[in-house]
Amino acid sequence: MPHAGFIHLRVHSAYSLLEGAIKLDELAELCVADAMPAVAVADSGNLFGALEFALSAAKAGVQPIIGCQIGLTRADHEPRNGASPPPDPLVLLVQSEAGYRNLMKMVSRSFLESPPGEVPQVGLADLETFGAGLIALTGGPAGPVGRRLLEGQDPAAEQVLGELARIFPGRLYVEIMRHGLPEEARVEGRLIDLAYAHELPLVATNEVFFPNEAMYEAHDALICIAEGSYVGETERRRLTPEHRFKSPQEMAEIFADLPEALANTLTIARRCAYVPQVVEPILPAFPTEGGRSEAEELRARAEAGLERRLASQVYRDDMDETAREAAARLYRERMEYEIEVIEQMGYPGYFLIVADFIQWAKQQGIPVGPGRGSGAGSVVSWALTITDLDPLRWGLLFERFLNPERVSMPDFDIDFCQERRDEVIRYVQEKYG
């Protein structure tokens, strides 16, 4: 079956929070219906949906292209009223695993190092440091090149285009958009001239926010919610019905005069071969005593902890030795069963690490909750003082927490004092990395 001659490279999924309105499984279905062999999700400023998108697209037989619309700091504008102008959008698409890691670093840096209250953004220096393995699209009329052209700064536009071409050698595409907006028409000719003058390829894009025209009004209301405005207001952000998932046939008609820009969407897809995979959690090694394995360490600590719990919370003064042994037998049998399951599933280190930082927090006088959720059903957790609820007394089930028939990482719900929880996080970082 022949595939379509156009690929969407600027889709905003629902992970473009309060902006995109396309679910990732729905996106895959749209691509299959249009025989679109690949598609790129470039959510605004984040990679929240990258893995989910990769899995859902690949399952549907569509090549996923991981991307992000990142904000580029506007160094050519002075702050007004103490706030910097919003950054210029730039689209980055992943070519390789190195590019994926670089894009993750860049997105993290944009959140961690941007001024408080401002849109997450990076500078040209960050692009230079982390640009390897990435393809860049210039961002259309709102991007760093198009925005300068709209402001009549043609020399500055050409300069920043040259900078981007230097940072992304052979990996920069001049983006042409046709949503029917006046600013697109105003800069298109000059963008094409700059691309030809600098021997840079063109690429046709349609910024997609919703699946079809019927969703336009609902999406317009979503934009109002995001900005705290009303549908009837005139001075607010508006998109158009053209910001939908257009078919390849529609795009071929719109860009009939620029077939190279359409063909380059396929070229970019061929250049983007990386798909992130599900990676099982990797736990740091727990430092054991006397050369014991983690399983042996867990057993030793749990058995010692259980004896302390029995002495302080189960045994009564009126119990003779026989009564105490009878009471203890239930706990020891339950613990033996739990330890076998924990060892079988490979989680002794997890229990030891969690017990370690909880015990450290208690030693520092940091309030720790008694335990919530299914983890309170574990005698091992109780013996290690991860939880403070006696599961046998209250009839709590271990299988709700850890079950060999449903293999998944155990999850303790732990409450730390709000004012001092950062101390616990810092302890874990310093000890375990």
Task: Give a structural overview.
It is a single chain. The protein has 433 residues and is of the alpha/beta class. Helix content is 44%, strand content 9%. α13 packs across α15. It is elongated. The model has no long low-confidence stretch (mean pLDDT 94).
Record the SSE blueprint.
Blueprint: H1 24-33, E1 38-44, H2 50-59, E2 63-72, E3 88-94, H3 97-113, H4 124-130, E4 134-137, H5 144-150, H6 154-167, E5 172-177, H7 182-197, E6 202-205, H8 216-227, H9 248-254, H10 259-271, H11 294-314, H12 321-345, H13 348-363, H14 379-383, H15 421-432
Helix pairs in contact: 1-2, 5-6, 5-7, 11-12, 11-13, 13-15
Given the structure, what is the number of helices? 15
> Considering DSSP H and I runs of 4 or more, what fraction of the residues is helical?
40-55%
Major sheet: size, sense and barrel closure?
6 strands, mixed
Residue fraction in strands: 5-15%
Helices and strands, in order, run as: HEHEEHHEHHEHEHHHHHHHH
> How many whole angstroms does the radius of gyration measure?
28 Å
Give a quick precis of the structure.
The longest helix is centred in the last third of the chain and has 25 residues, at 321-345.
Characteristic terms for this protein:
433 residues, alpha/beta, 6-stranded mixed beta sheet, 15 helices, 6 strands, 9% strand
